[in-house]
Amino acid sequence: MKVLSISPERCTGCMRCELACAYMQSGAYQPAKSVIRVAPLEMHTSYAPFTCFQCDEGWCMTACPVDAIAISAVGAKIVSDDQCVGCKLCTIACPYGTIFYDEDTHKATKCDLCGGDPACVEACPTQAIEWVEGDAADWLGEFAARRAGTDLTGLAAVE
Fold first, then answer.
1. What single DSSP character describes residue 89?
2. Is the residue at 98 inside a domain?
3. Residue 157 or 117, more confident
4. Do the beta carbons of residue 26 and residue 39 sit within 8 Å?
5. Number of H helices and number of E strands within the chain?
6. To 5 degrees, how large is the angle CA 13–CA 14–CA 16?
7. Residues 105, 66: one domain?
């Protein structure tokens, strides 16, 4: 199965992935409509793109009282606009904060992997986001662990 693979150490913070995603989601270059976000880390010295992990647990699916979230042919958990009642329970249930509530439509929205051709992958100039064969993974685990002892303020890291 193909999955998004994110390598935060390659991200420059250009946010082209956000713009491409927003356009695919809404037809407008409006980053607020993007379901991939680029988070600044370490006082804006590094960045990490993040979006739905398409996790096996599927907390969003479990929390949905009207079964508006299903698994697509490409393995994405997708929200059915016809069924979603906008209760926001899925947004609360997601431990990663990667399912969003759209104020305009009053519906939940999340990464649907662009039907198997993720726009964020094409837009990323540094290959920080790739569409590869593999299993879902914790994108930030190793990245965060390596930086846990890094001191960017000039003070000694606390052990």
1. H
2. yes
3. 117
4. no
5. 5, 8
6. 125
7. yes
pLDDT tens sequence across 74-116 = 999 999 999 999 999 999 999 999 999 999 999 999 999 999 9
- Mean pLDDT, the chain, whole residue set: 88
CATH of the domain at 36: 3.30.70
Element (H, E) at 26: helix 16-26
State the Cα–Cα distance between residues 111 and 123, nearest whole angstrom.
15
Query: 121 versus 158: which is more confidently predicted?
Result: 121
What's the pLDDT band for 67 if we cut at 50, 70, 90? Answer: very high
Phi, psi of 131 (to 5 degrees): -110, 100
The structural domain count of the chain equals 2
The mean pLDDT of 37-63, rounded to a whole number, is 89
- Which residues have CB under 8 Å from 155's CB, separation 6+? none
Q: Which domain holds residue 21?
A: 1-51+114-150
Both tokens of 119, joined, read 């726009």
